[in-house]
Amino acid sequence: MSAPVFFIHRGNEPYLSISLQQARSSNPHAEVILIGKPANRGHGGPHIRHAFLGDYFAGAAHFSNVYKHDSPNTREYNLFCFQRWFVLRDYMSRHGITEGYYLDSDVMLYADMRNSHLRRHPFELCWTTYIHIHPLRQLCDMMMRAFADPDSFAHLRHHTKQLGHPAVSDMIVFDLFYNHMLENTRTFGFHQDGLYDYNLHHCSGFEMQGGFKKIYWCGGILYGNLLAEHRFLRINSLHFQGGAKIYMPHFHTPHLPSGRNETFYFHYGAQTWVTSEHAKATIEAF
């Protein structure tokens, strides 16, 4: 069995089933685990393992005693963004799991993670990341110190402002952990095996359409068009942040175009896949 794919989610939104099913479809050899609430048990079908969030919440509850809210988001939302890493740590520790992949519930996965280059850059993107239990414990310890110690919290706030972010969030702690403790170089989601998407709204050098990355489908693979480099890059995941969640059903494998010998692109306005003969020759040449 390959390293599991984890989701942690408290809600009962329909898109949760889509992201779970997509992870299972692209990684049938791996266990897909949802740590959630009773209301979302059963999402994704019978092949998704469900665990109750409350059974692994002791460390997360302890963190809430030191947490200081400094965000335009609600306290409950921002606090849970930190707490989920304690939940994941405690779940992995209790079940003897040493490694896995964590995805936000609005991320759809298309890569076979057995061959993923993502594991070379753990903890870079908190919505799509490779996790190993030992650095995960270090990350949680760092979060505790960052809020419990006044000087550490001042440093965290200063780093947040330097990055131009409006909120002290787990993304900022990830940035500090990745740069200064792991001392790793940034990839911004670009890896040898393709792109792990930062955000569907973000250009990142790709051709855009209607404010989103223009996504192509050819030969059973998703691609994006890197304009400056004049090449198409394989898409390994897509992050449907915010209002982009409405497009998730169209990117679920069973609903992707069936024409294996044709090339398509997704038209966001019409919410449908459209044939693209112009892109076909370029992608095939690539």
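the 2nd protein, sequnce then structure:
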Amino acid sequence: MVDGGGAGSDGAGPGGAGRLDRDVWRALGDLGFFALRLPEAEGGVGLGLPEAVLVFEEAGRVLLPGPLVATHLAAGAVPGAATGETVVAAVDCGLVEWLAEADVVRGDATGAVPLRSLDPLTPLHRVPAGRPAPDPLAVLLSAAEQLGTAVRVGELAAQHARAREQFGRPVGAFQAVAHLCAGILVRAETARATVYAAAVTADPADIAAARLLADEAAVRGARDCLQVHGGMGFTWESEVHLHLKRAWVRAQRAGGVTESEEMLAAALASGTA
């Protein structure tokens, strides 16, 4: 996911990617993105976790950058977070996304060291502090973003398979390509069912299962989408490789899949899942 080459916090890629657009951040605040689950009496939208999951799914689908989860979860607790005036980052199992751009950092970021991120739109730092238990809501919202990526790469793969021709036929007519597209769809829809269910129950075991399936759908889906596109998928004119890189970074949140696997296994062993 990361390279310890010390690239600094502004990432890499065309156009100086890695800088947060404060105008966009405030616009998200005006739209209620961060205050979605705050009660109306506190200036929020007054909706619930299922609605937040739908919004974060769309954010993942369009590769919206920034510490979205951390700022959303800070709304109501950190002044200005709900309105987008304050950018909030959070220490997440030894990693911090967007540390240099944050106005407030939740957790101990002392001694943070910049890392070269595979995703040019997600600057990273590593911190030597301990590894607090992951927040289940943060895990679920990250899974929703992964679901958005899984859905988007399915769309991109299908579009390319219909439009690209070889030997006088769309490449989607060839069985190998059709199977790749079908696999992307099946994994995305399986992940969608589990993520939506976890948003309703908010059960930690359900969230762990949703995270595992969403990570798989996003990472494998993006990789298969690259296979469908061939070399075109790696160019800067294509968004496919960006979805894969973002999915890799998200998959390392909350301690990686191992944390969720252990939680789900413990729930299954105790009969609570």
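The longest strand covers residues 88-92. The chain has a mean pLDDT of 89.
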